[in-house]
Amino acid sequence: MAEYNITDSVDITDVNCPITFVKTKVALDELDDGDILAIRLNDGEPVQNVPRSLKEEGHKVLGLTQNEDGTYRLIVQKVGD
Prior knowledge:
Elements: E1 8-11, H1 19-29, E2 36-41, H2 45-56, E3 60-66, E4 72-77
Parallel strand pairs: 1-2
Antiparallel strand pairs: 2-4, 3-4
Helix pairs in contact: 1-2
């Protein structure tokens, strides 16, 4: 995965859907347009639903990689408010 200038990060591995998206949205709301958020999330519903929901809101998903511990790292750029 390309290297990005990460503005902030959030770990949502301790919550279940739909709170995963709520925590992600709160973290994005605190950023400026163009800022990049790194999100650590679990396999299953979170990795399926969070990227899709972010795209539907107009944000740019820059990458998704699996970590050695079975979690995932999602990189998202905030677009618009």
